[in-house]
Amino acid sequence: MANIPQRIIHEYLRHDKKFPHVWCAGCSNGIVLGAIIRAIASMDLDRDDIVMVSGIGCSSRMPVYVDFNTLHSLHGRAIAFATGIKMHKPKLKVIVITGDGDCTAIGGNHLIHAARRNIDLKVILINNNIYGMTGGQCSPTTPHDAIATTAPYGNIEPDFNVCNLAMGAGASFVARTTAFHVLELQGMIKDAMEHPGFSLIEVISACPVIFGRLNKKGGAPQMMKDFRDNSVPLAAVAKLPPEKVEGKIVRGILRREIRPEYCAEYAALSKRVQAMGGE
Amino acid sequence: MPKKDIKTKPAPKAKATNETLAVKPDSKLEEIQATRERKSVLMQGNEAVAYGALDAGVNFFAGYPITPSTEVAEILSAELPKRGGVFVQMEDEIASICAITGASLAGAKSLTATSGPGFSLMQEGIGFAKITETPCVVVNVQRMGPSTGMPTSPAQGDIMQAKWGSHGDSPAIVLYPASVKESYELTIRAVNLSEKYRTCVILLLDEVIGHMRESVRLPDMANVRVINRIKPTVPPNWYKHYDENQKYLSPLASYGEGYRFHVTGLTHDSHGFPTNKSGEAGEMMDRLRKKISYNMRDLVQIESYQMEDATIAIFTAGITARAAKAAIAMARSEGIKVGLLRPLTIWPFPDEAVRKMLRNVETVIVPELNQGQLIHEIQRLTKDKSESNLIAMQRVNGQLITPNDILHKIKEVS
C-alpha cells in the first residue's frame, strides 16, 4: 500500500455543513470510510468520476461526508440506483455503501440480480449484525441466539453468510475482512476498484453502542480485539484443523474471476445491433 | 420521399450518424418515420408511447414486464440499443423506478412503463424522484381492480393514486390521453415537463387506449418540440443543486460533470445536504408545491368540446371521454345542448376551467371507470352550488361506459 499521508482524508471530505457526523463513538463506519478514501487516493482516479451511492441506515449516511458525486437513496435500493447510473455512464466508478439490513433484507433482490448480471459496481457492505439507525432490531446477519430489541429472548433465525450469497448469485469479486484489519480492507477496496465486474466486500464491523451493549461485547476496543482474535486469513484456513476455524471469521478474497461484465455486454450488443443496421 | 407501401418497402440503408433518428432497418418505427409526413400508420397506444418516448429523446428505459403495458418495454428493447440508448429489464418495478432515477441523475432522459401492481410498488421511488427533483417519466397503463384485478380490462382507478400514492404530500403532474395519437403527444409532453420542472411526471393510459389500434400520422420531427433540462453554467463551487433564486426551475448538473453534488431523500437545503431545520424543511416543501402551483397555465391542458351553448356538461378523461363525444353527437341531433370538458392534465387539477364550466351549465355528469374519483374534485369546487346537479356515473366491472349509457343519462337529466 502506498504511503498516504493522514491529511488526505481531509482533502476528500466535505467541510461545509456536514459535520459532526451521525455515527456513535466506537462505530466502525469511520474506519471503513478512511480505508475507502486512502484506497482511492492511492489510485489514479479522478474524483469527478467516482459516484458513491448508499441506501438507508447508519453506514448509508457515509456519502454526504465525502467529496464525490454522491447519492443517499432509498432503503435497500442503492444497487438499483447504482445500476441506472452505471448503465447510463459506464465510465463512472460506482461505489455502493450499504449495510446488512439494507443490502441483504430489503435490498436482497437487487443484490442477487446485480451479482448475476456482473455489473461493475463496488459494493462495500458494512455488516454490524444489527439495525443500528432504528435502535437495534435483528437483521438477516444477526447471529443465532444473539439479542436484539426485536429478539429480546435471543434470535431464533439462522444468519446469512453474505459472501456465499453473493458468490451463489454470481458475483465475480467477493472478499471479507473486519474493521480491525484496515490495511487489508484498503487493499481489498483497491483490488475491487480494479476488478471489472460486480464486487462485494463484506466488512465485519463493530456497533458497540447497540449490538455490543445488548450482547455484552465489552465495548469498542474489546470488539476490535475480538475481530483480531476470532478471524483467520483465508490462506491459513487450509492449514488449520477444522476446530480452529469453526466459528471464526474467514478473511480474504474469496473469489476473483473474470467473466463478462454487464455494461460491456450491453455495449457489445448495441454495437452489434448498430452494425446489423449498417450492412 | 416517394410514397411507399409499409409492408413491402425495403429497409433503406442506415446512415452512420449520431442523430436521434439514426434508425435501422427491420423496424416498424423506421418505416413510420420514413413515411411519417405522408402516411397514417395503424398503431397501438403502447406503441405510440414508445415512439413518443424516442422522439422526446428518451435514452434510458428500465422496466419489468406487466400487462397491459409490456409493449412499451418490448419496443424500446429493440429500439434503444440501435440509438446508443439503454434498455434494462430490472428484477422488479421498485428497481425499475430506482434505476431510471439513478440514470437521470447521471444525465439520461429516462422512462419506465407499468400497470397497477407495478405502479403501487413504484410509489416510494416516485416520491424520491419528486423530493430530489430528478426528471423521469412513469407510464401507468391502468388495469381494473385492486391487486391483480383484471389485467386486460380497462378502469380509471389510479387517478387518485397518481396524485396521492406516494407518502408525505407531494404535488404531481399527471397527463391523461384519450387516443393513440394523443398517447404519442402526451408522452413527449410528459418527458418535456419532467425535464423542465425536474420531477417525476406520470402518464396514465386506459388499458383500452394502450391496446387499441388507431390510424396515426406522426408529425415530422421538425415539428416535435423537445425540451431538455437546463444545465448549470456556474463553476462547480457555486453550483446549488436546488437553486432557490431560479423561480423553482433551477439548472441540473449530472454526475460525472465535475459538479460533485449530493442527492438525498432526506429533507435538504438548497445544496442538497440534509437538514432538520424547520425553516429549511418548510422552504423545500414550499418549493415542491410552488413549482407546480405557480405554473398552472403551462401545466394545465384541457379540451372544451361543444361547451359554448351547453347546459349539460360531461366531465371525464381518457376513453370515457371518447364515449362521451359519441353520446354528445347523438344528444345534439335530438336538440339537447350538451358539451364535454376533458382534462388532458388531470393533476394539477384544472380548477379554473372547472369553475368556469360550473358557472355556465346547469348539470354536470361525471362518468368514470371507478367508484368515484374525478367527481370528488368537482364536488370540491361546487361548494356554493347545489350538488343535486352533479351526476355520478360509475362502472367498475371491466366494461366500458358506452355512448348509449351516457346518452341515456343525458336524456334522464335534460
Question: Could you explain the architecture of this structure?
Answer:
The complex is a heterodimer of chains A (279) and B (414). Chain A has 279 residues and is an alpha/beta fold. Chain A has one domain (7-277): Rossmann fold (3-Layer(aba) Sandwich), CATH 3.40.50. Helices cover 39% and strands 18% of the residues of chain A. Chain A is built from 12 helices and 10 strands. Chain A has helices spanning 7-12, 29-41, 78-88, 100-106, 108-117, 162-169, 182-194, 208-214, 219-229, 234-237, 242-245, 262-277, and strands at 50-54, 69-72, 93-99, 121-127, 130-131, 137-138, 173-178, 199-204, 231-233, 249-256. Chain A has an 8-stranded mixed beta sheet with strand order 2-1-3-4-8-7-10-9, sandwiched between helices. Chain A has a two-stranded antiparallel sheet with strand order 5-6. Chain A is globular. In chain A, 48% of the residues are buried. By secondary structure, chain B is of the alpha/beta class. Chain B has 2 domains: 28-223, Thiamin diphosphate (ThDP)-binding fold, Pyr/PP domains (Rossmann fold), CATH 3.40.50.970; 303-413, Rossmann fold (3-Layer(aba) Sandwich), CATH 3.40.50. In chain B, 37% of the residues lie in helices and 17% in strands. Chain B has 14 helices and 15 strands. In chain B, strands 3-2-4-5-7-6-13 form a 7-stranded mixed beta sheet, sandwiched between helices. In chain B, α2 (45-55) crosses α3 (70-79) and α4 (93-105) packs parallel to α5. In chain B, 54% of the residues are buried. Chains A and B meet through β2, α3, α5 and α12 of A and α4, α5 and β9 of B. β2 (69-72) of chain A pairs parallel with β9 of chain B, so a sheet runs across the interface.
